[in-house]
UniProtKB/TrEMBL annotation:
The chain crosses the membrane at residues 98-119, 162-182, 214-232, 253-275, 281-301. PANTHER family: SLR1478 PROTEIN (PTHR35337:SF1). InterPro entries: SpoIIM-like (IPR002798). It comes from the Bacteria. The lineage of its organism: Bacteria, Bacillati, Actinomycetota, Actinomycetes, Actinomycetales. Keywords: Membrane, Transmembrane, Transmembrane helix. This is Stage II sporulation protein M. Pfam families: SpoIIM.
């Protein structure tokens, strides 16, 4: 019965919500109809509970609220711009302390592992033969970057590293996974560097690692630092509840995980095309360093700028808990 009486008003509200711009009288009409439809919805739910009509009115009221609040509808270009100019850089910038800590942990473990193997070469022979170590340093390590087509190799490296970064971010709440991945990879890099240095030369190792590795490893440092930061935020939420800390940290992790796909795409292109190229070593390392510095400037400029803009808005808006 109510549907027959109010159907025209519901349709009118739907028409007003679909309009791109509303005049003054139309805005007043929209407000009046919104109140009436809200009352109709309460009546329907009290008498019949949830049904198709009440679901329709709920959606209609949601559309009307959006229209009255003036919430902007972002198109695809605006969403992409917002992500790259605001969401991604500020998510990384806020966790720069943890990222620096992850970098320090990786470098420390890699140096300790590398020097330990380099200073104890006889220990290597307990796990591998001299021929296999020589073959790795002079053939496998070098041919790894050129034995497949550059496009295929870049794609494979990109997907593998993106998966590893996503794993560190997604399982950051454990606190253990990001640290384990960083330490295990650091130990592997240190050992590889020692083997190549012993059975070939340090110059060969760094000439193949640095052009792409400084950017590739930096992306993993970001993933590890941001992932571990979620564990700390939930463990010590401060003025937030743990649920709030988990929600805010989870949104930030999603931003970082998606953004790192593009950083690692850059690193994958360098590894597939630049590292095995015939360019002079100094030029290859310079290009890799330039790419890393470009990303650092990007995070610093946009991240710090957005952090300053949001500092006042976020200050003091925490739910007090016992």
């Amino acid at each position: 019965m109510l549907e027959k009486l109010r159907k025209d008003q519901w349709r009118r509200l739907e028409v007003l919500c679909a309009k791109r711009k509303l005049s003054g009288p139309q805005c007043d009409e929209l407000t009046h109809l919104y109140r009436q439809v809200a009352a109709d919805l309460s009546l329907l739910q009290a008498e019949y509970g949830d049904n198709d009509t009440s679901a329709y009115l709920s959606n209609l009221l949601q559309m009307a609220r959006s229209k009255m609040s003036g919430a902007p509808k972002l198109n695809f270009f605006e969403l992409v711009s917002r992500f790259f100019l605001k969401d991604f850089p500020i998510a990384v910038w806020r966790e720069r302390g943890w990222i620096i800590a992850a970098t320090g942990l990786f470098l420390l473990v890699a140096l300790v592992s590398g020097f330990h193997v380099y200073l104890n070469p006889d220990a290597l022979l307990l796990t591998s033969s001299k021929d296999s170590l020589d073959r790795y340093a002079n053939e496998s390590f070098i041919n790894y970057y050129s034995e497949h087509a550059a496009s295929l190799f870049s794609t494979q490296v990109w997907t593998n590293n993106a998966w590893l970064a996503a794993l560190m971010v997604a399982l950051g709440l454990t606190g253990f996974v990001p640290v384990y991945i960083l330490i295990s990879n650091a130990a592997a890099v240190g050992r590889a560097g020692a083997v190549v240095s012993l059975y070939n030369s340090p110059e060969v190792f760094f000439s193949y690692i640095l052009p792409h590795g400084i950017l590739e490893l930096s992306a993993l440092f970001i993933a590890g630092g941001v992932g571990f930061s979620l564990f700390v935020k939930v463990l010590m939420p401060g003025r937030k509840t743990r649920l709030q800390a988990l929600g805010d940290g989870g949104k930030q992790l999603l931003m970082v995980a998606f953004g790192l796909v593009f950083v690692l795409l850059n690193a994958g292109i360098l590894e597939g095309y630049l590292t095995p190229s015939a360019l002079p070593v100094w030029l290859k390392i310079s290009i890799g360093t330039f790419c890393l510095l470009a990303w650092i400037v990007y995070f610093w400029f946009f991240g710090s700028r957005q952090a300053q803009l949001l500092a006042e808005d976020e200050h003091g808006y925490y739910q007090p808990t016992a």
